[in-house]
Design goal:
The protein contains ten helices and 14 strands. It is of the alpha+beta class. Strands 1, 2, 3, 4, 11, 12, 13 and 14 form an eight-stranded mixed β-sheet that branches.
């Protein structure tokens, strides 16, 4: 085994997201955001410890004093090579899960050590994501309207037939007006911009573009999938408070608003992505309980080969109960 992650780790990582999704699914529709996230974190951490890798969490649940498990800088895996950076979101869309809404996911990404971008003090970034066919059309320096016309031309369809994923936040009021003024349709979602980026990259989801400001950690996770699909992402830091702006300026200086791409956020081709649906959506089916079994639906990707797999798993509840400490 070399020090580089040559094997397809995505096929091992899907066990991690499956476990987190199975643990979190019990909280679907209960209104308990913290309970669902805690269950997913515990399950994800347990299975991560079985993966043969020397991993460091780059994107986690926060700093150690606020997140006792899966915190930034935590070592995961069994300590053997390959040496890798790890980005996790045990429940991407905790509110979606708590309210029983679509598109809550468990997500993980991995790349060789030192290749993942560290957001530092930056919590938010402006993002623009499109699929492979429109990858050369986008330019974040241009306004939303001009980008939409360029994307429509690349896709060979009128702007009015574009559907744009936007988070339903007060900060996007002007963006939504500008998108609608072009005739394009807006899909407003309360949460889940990793899911939104995936839908913009993959066919058959009904989403052509992701636009707007979302979390920087979610940007790194999404960038891994964008690279794997041959799609395109452009982003730049977008501080949402004066305190965040001051921290970003102090850390980054004049380059604080530089435009970054998926290749800046994940610099290695030895990178992997896995996601398991917790609640059903356009992208993945959610966790389902049927006749003594639990069914999960997952997506795994390998950047180096561009291979995308959808995995349907049938878990035997009685056998899991006998061998696992996770309450499935």
């Amino acid at each position: 085994m070399s020090d580089r992650p040559e094997r397809n780790l995505a096929l091992e990582l899907v066990r991690v997201t499956e476990a987190a999704a199975l643990a979190a699914a019990h909280y679907m529709g209960t209104g308990d955001k913290e309970g669902g996230d805690r269950a997913a974190v515990n399950a994800m951490r347990l299975i991560l410890g079985t993966v043969e890798m020397d991993g460091v969490i780059v994107i986690g649940e926060g700093e150690k004093d606020q997140a006792p498990m899966l915190y930034n800088g935590e070592r995961v895996g069994n300590g053997r090579p390959p040496a890798v950076d790890v980005a996790v979101d045990p429940v991407e869309g905790t509110r979606l899960l708590a309210l029983g809404r679509p598109n809550a996911l468990s997500v993980i990404a991995l790349a060789e050590r030192w290749s993942m971008w560290n957001p530092g003090p930056s919590f938010y970034m402006e993002k623009l994501v499109v699929g492979k066919q429109a990858r050369e059309a986008i330019d974040l320096r241009l306004g939303p309207a001009e980008n939409l016309h360029r994307i429509a031309e690349a896709l060979g369809k009128p702007v009015r037939n574009l559907t744009v994923f936007v988070l339903d936040k007060p900060r996007h009021e002007a963006l939504i007006r500008e998108i609608r003024a072009t005739g394009a349709r807006v899909s407003l979602q309360t949460d889940g911009d990793v899911a939104g980026a995936l839908m913009a990259c993959l066919p058959g989801t009904g989403i052509d573009v992701l636009m707007g400001v979302g979390g920087t950690p979610e940007g790194v996770l999404a960038a891994t999938a964008v690279k794997a699909t041959g799609s395109a992402m452009q982003c730049r830091r977008a501080p949402q408070s004066e305190a965040e702006r001051a921290r970003v300026l102090a850390a980054c200086g004049e380059t604080w608003d530089e435009i970054l791409t998926q290749d800046d956020l994940v610099r290695s081709e030895d990178a992997f992505f896995a996601a398991t649906g917790i609640t059903a959506g356009a992208l993945l089916q959610g966790v389902r309980y049927e006749d003594g079994v639990i069914i999960t639906h997952s997506l795994v990707m390998r950047v180096k080969t561009g291979t995308i797999r959808y995995i349907k798993a049938i878990h035997q509840m009685d056998k899991l109960a006998r061998i696992s400490s996770i309450p499935y």
